[in-house]
Amino acid sequence: MRFALVIAFLLTIVSVPVPAEPARQVLWIALQTCILAKKATGRTFPCLAVDLGSADRSGTAVLRAPGQPTHTVVMPTERVVGLEAPELQHASGIAYWRAALAARHFVTDALKGAIPSEDVGLAVNSEGGRSQDQLHIHLDCVKSSVRAALRVYAPSIHESWAPMPIALQGSRFFAMRFKAADVESFNPFAALARLPGRRPNLLQTSFGAISTPADDPERGFSLLAYRAPNANAEMLLDHSCSTVAKAAAR
């Protein structure tokens, strides 16, 4: 019981008024609890899954956001502050991207298979747009308005960065696409360093990744990114999965 109370405290402390820096370490503390549980008992609570990795393979953990049945985050088991971390420009960036793709089933499982894994979006926020200073990739349903816009403008998204013709959720994104055959080897963190404009400031950069429309002959992903002091591509995701919920209610 005491262990359960400690975990509950760690997962809810972010809502308590505390100094800014300690509040941004709650996810890291919860992650350490998951790692300790995995090493000591083989269990992963409060995480859904923990892969400790090895000397030549990055470890990852999967955690459900408290009180949100589908909202899932994937994070490194080692200290990586955010998407601006230099090591993400190399192999570890690909490893965490792959881990996030593999974890999409936690969202679809929560929805009892109401959507395929291809309909689960991914997002990483900027330093100012995130509440925690441990890299975490958000997974959840994609907002229906975003999905509809990408369906309309898919022909204008190519394999190099270009501005989206319209705003998404009130922000102007750059977009690029990559084919399904390249998904496993793709590094979205490295792609951010090639964003057009002034020298990239990754601290103010955020990105989302959403699968291309089902009727696309070359299925893959659209990568969407923008820069702003509080850039938050998580806004492309629907943490209520409202469209799926409405369909299920019919």
Question: What's the helix and strand layout?
Answer:
Layout: H1 2-12, H2 20-23, H3 26-41, E1 49-51, E2 60-64, E3 72-76, H4 91-102, H5 105-110, E4 120-124, E5 137-142, H6 144-153, E6 162-163, E7 174-179, H7 188-192, E8 205-211, E9 220-227, E10 237-238, H8 242-249
Antiparallel strand pairs: 1-2, 2-3, 3-5, 4-5, 4-8, 5-10, 6-7, 7-9, 8-9
Characterize the structure shown.
The protein is of the alpha+beta class and 250 residues long. The chain has a single domain (2-249), classed as HIT family -  CDH-like (HIT family, subunit A). 29% of the residues lie in helices and 20% in strands. The chain has helices at 2-12, 20-23, 26-41, 91-102, 105-110, 144-153, 188-192, 242-249; strands at 49-51, 60-64, 72-76, 120-124, 137-142, 162-163, 174-179, 205-211, 220-227, 237-238. Strands 1, 2, 3, 4, 5, 6, 7, 8, 9 and 10 form a 10-stranded antiparallel beta sheet that branches. β1 and β2 form a beta hairpin.
Low-confidence stretches: 1-20
**Topology, number of strands:** 10
Instruction: Please name the CATH architecture.
Output: 2-Layer Sandwich
Name the CATH class.
Alpha Beta
Order of helices and strands: HHHEEEHHEEHEEHEEEH
Q: Report the average pLDDT across residues.
A: 89
Question: Roughly how many Å apart are the termini?
Answer: 41 Å
> What is the structural class?
alpha+beta
Total count of domains: 1
Q: What's the helix count?
A: 8
The proportion of residues forming helix, as a percent range, comes to 25-40%
Based on Cα principal axes, name the global outline: globular
In CATH, the topology is named HIT family, subunit A
User: How much of the sequence is in beta strands?
Assistant: 15-25%
Subcellular location: Cell membrane
Protein name: CDP-diacylglycerol pyrophosphatase
GO molecular function: CDP-diacylglycerol diphosphatase activity
Pathway: Lipid metabolism; Phospholipid metabolism; CDP-diacylglycerol degradation; phosphatidate from CDP-diacylglycerol: step 1/1
